[in-house]
Amino acid sequence: MADPTINLALYAQTDVGMVRSGNEDNFLILDLSSGRSWTANEEEPQDLLTYTQGYYGTLLAVSDGMGGALAGEVASRIAVETVRDRMLQLQAHEVYGRMPFSERLRLAVEEANSIIHTDGQTNQAHRGLGATFTAVATHGNHVYFAQVGDSRAHLIRQGRIYRVTKDQSLVQQLIDAGQITEEEAETHSYRNVILQALGAHNNVNVEVNAVPLCQLDTLVICSDGLSGKMHADEIARIVNEASDFKSACQSLINLANERGGEDNITVVVAQFSGSALPLPDSNSLTPKSLARSPDTPTEITWVTGARTDPLDHSSGSSQSSPAPPSPDGEVRKTEPLPLPPKQATPFTAPLQRSSSGKLRTNDLSDRVEPITAVFAPEDFEEDPRVTAPQKQAPATDAFDSRFTKPISALSPQASADVARETNRSPLNHSNGAQPGKKSSKANLAIFIGLVLLGITGLVLSATTYFKQQSEEKTAKEETQKIESSQKESRLKTLGETIEKIDKAIQAVDNPSLKEKSDNLKERLKTQKEQLIQAALIPDDQPQTIKERCDEIDKKLKEIEDELKTLQGLLPVRTTSREPIKV
Predict the structure, then answer these.
(1) Phi and psi dihedrals of 28, rounded to 5?
(2) How far apart are CA 481 and CA 474, in angstroms?
């Protein structure tokens, strides 16, 4: 009898969008059994688009970086690469390899947070960097979700879509508390404020959940550049109607761009099938929340295994060590694994329909701005729009009494002297002084006070003006630095692509193909000249630079596809992911 198997068909794609000049998103596809991986910075690997899952499982993730300039791109790259490396290292470790799979996933994400936070604290160029991180990992016939921030993971089962993760955002917290409705959240002033991100603080709370994996389950993971532009039922419709996952990803990205494309857009779609997966037994989905185990160490210590031993062998609290690959190097087939612990009640339910009949998904479809800040809930405790009931404003004087009192620029003693002089009776003279003289002294004191007050006001106004000018100049210089850095990064990437294609053309040594290879050389030479012209465009014209670079990139892809055909290699085409329908 054949071993039970789980087969995957997947695709991932990221797009810069219609407004931004750089892409701060990233994704991760990782076969934990073979160590093969794919991130947004790497070429598409054909052997990871369809394969049979091994014993150690699969990890899929999306990360949305933030921090401005190149910091957001750095944060998301560190996130996916750290989680990739740590998951492979942890499962191979003598001690950590015996930890529950969900805790290894949690520990890997926590490690990414620590590294990003340290980089942001020590590298001045990366101040304020951070990243959301949403991971979906399959181990045996169970799927685990790890969430930090507001990128989202959906599961399509029997044609119906469920949002498994919950945004760690301020508006989601307000919705849960019943202080605002989902409709109000779409236009709320805090709709882009998330409560957690990798790197924002020294510690992070990774929300981990689990559900059983069923036959033909389809996972959709995306950044808010996608989820902020469409509802979940639209995502399900596009995926269900697509002929393959590559075209599904492209259709989703195209729709988000048609609706504005103000943010970077990243999506990962994967479907699971095989004899190891049962058929769905209901039309509901109830994820189980997995609390952090007290045995999970707070820090990875490779030499000793952990700061404190995470496994209590005497109590039998650990799971048995997963079996390694066979001696001949062949990856083992999927084997039954223990069910995840049932430690909490479900927090999500199938999507509900509104009174109009439309599926409500908590999507903020009108969002046009990217994430702008990460705050803790206590940062908003004094905001009357957040707390309920609203605090009463302190009692104040009536308008007339507050705004008609005279303002004095004199010292308290001088003011007292003026008061004595002005309140003294005309008959109460001293040293024979005339009332007119006393009045003149008082008037002089008031005049001096007004002059001093005027001078003070002029000084403050001038100070404010020059400060604003200085801040505007600094902001302008910072913007120019960012635009220059983004331009250099894009030109460098295109230059490297041209160099790679040129080497590949030179390697074509078939005389019968000389005419075609010469044609490719001429076209590549033209793109080199276009790249030089793009480098001469002033930095203050970022949109022109972006359009020129996009055109060059498009032409290079066409040349590269024709070169592959010339070499006897087919260019990347759509990948079948049948079966797709129930």
Answers:
(1) -140, 130
(2) 11
